[in-house]
Amino acid sequence: xxxxxxxxxxxLTLAALFLVLNAALSIWLRLGLARQLIIAAARxxxxxxxxxxxxxxxxxxxxLWLTGALMLVMxxxxxxxxxxxxxxxxxxxxxxxxxxxxxxxxGLMVTIFGLTFAIxxxxxxxxxxxxxxxxxILGNTMTGVALGLDTFLGALLREKAGVEARLLLGHTRMAxxxxxxxxxxxxxxxxxxxxxxxxxxxxxxxxxxxxxxSGIDPQEAVKYQLLIMFLxxxxxxxxxxxxxxxxxxxxxxxxxxxxxxxxxxxK
Length: 267
Fold this sequence. Notes:
Helix 4 (94-119) packs antiparallel against helix 5 (127-158) and helix 5 (127-158) runs parallel beside helix 10. The protein is globular. The model has no long low-confidence stretch (mean pLDDT 90). The chain is built from 10 helices and no strands. It folds into 2 domains: 1-61, no CATH class; 63-262, no CATH class. By secondary structure, it is mainly α.
């Protein structure tokens, strides 16, 4: 007996009523979130429908070039989201390159590691495994990097006097910014730490739930979920550390001066 249960559009419409309810409450309470909520939901529907069509085609083609091209597209969108979530990002190419460089390095390294030593699909770059794995890693790393950079750059703006005072007293740039660095790294780590602490007790993660609903043995689903969480935790940690340290390097110069002029001007 196949445990897979098919959903139709009526089922999805019923589920979407909860978002409509939230939008109505936002209008009633004058929260100003209704428009954002509706746009985000519409964007989600369009994106997922398009992704479903594209993935069906790519999975059938099993092409290394198509898989690589989609990975680049995913990385490009993740880079854009990292920069967009910062109130005062770095100006110029640095505002894009730090996020892109960190996520490309960490995302590809951890994805290749997981495919090579754990999942071992045939071929190794099989899009059915490589693309979802990279997507989960990029999504979590993107959140951590965005939070870490935004916290760090915002702290430098607010605490400029304290950082410059420590620099004048002879501290190196890293020592002068240590409180801001620690706070930023802790903030970037928080989502993945909370996710790992609550998983299995407070929540069942989406991938594990999907596998169970599709009929896979729960113990096997647990193994896959543990693998994914270990990879996500490692990638997020390395990504946050790399991005925040790169941001600290860019925000100072060889003369150990704080360079707030390298941020996008405030509105």
